[in-house]
Amino acid sequence: QVQLVESGGGSVQAGGSLRLSCAPSEYTVSSYCMGWFRQAPGKEREGVAGIWTGSGVAYYADSVKGRFTISRDNGKSTFDLQMNTLTPEDTAIYYCAARRLGCSSWSVRDPEAYRYWDYWGQGAQVTVSS
């Protein structure tokens, strides 16, 4: 099974930035759809961003558009999530994920999108203070 190892996370003040990275155990996963989800206390797991390398198209939740950017680092065989202008509402455990097939906006924006992803990272805590 493909393993996803996350790095990054931490604590920042509102308005700050953080960058998360996810390293697949197998290079072939880089051709899959890759994404990020988050789960805050008392809330459901929600899609944050996703990208399908087959098309190069990225998808974002409305709440993070213009602030977060998902990208693929081919040189390091990782995919990253750059998070800018963070707010306390962004506080959550962030999980990277991979999907064997392609994806579209529904892979991130659907309320139960997490059910359709195949591989998951262990999670990284992101805490934003006011």
Write up this protein.
- With 130 residues, the protein is mainly beta.
- It has one helix and eleven strands.
- Strands 2, 4, 5, 6, 9, 10 and 11 form a seven-stranded mixed sheet that branches.
- The chain is globular and about 40 Å long.
- 38% of the residues are buried.
Give the DSSP E fraction (strand runs of 2 or more residues): over 45%
Structural class: mainly beta
Distance between the termini: 40 Å
Mean pLDDT: 91
Radius of gyration of CA atoms, rounded to a whole number = 13 Å
How can the largest sheet be summarized?
7 strands, mixed
Q: Helix-strand pattern, N to C?
A: EEEEEEEEEHEE
Helix content: under 10%
| Number of helical regions | 1
Specify the overall morphology. Answer: globular
Give me a quick take on this structure.
The chain has 130 residues and is mainly beta. The chain has 1 helix and 11 strands. The model has no long low-confidence stretch (mean pLDDT 91).
Task: Please describe the topology of this protein.
Layout: E1 4-7, E2 10-13, E3 18-24, E4 33-39, E5 46-52, E6 57-60, E7 68-73, E8 78-83, E9 92-99, H1 106-109, E10 119-120, E11 124-129
Parallel strand pairs: 2-11
Antiparallel strand pairs: 1-3, 3-8, 4-5, 4-9, 5-6, 7-8, 9-10, 9-11
Provide the descriptors you would attach to this structure in a database record.
single chain, 130 residues, mainly beta, seven-stranded mixed beta sheet, globular
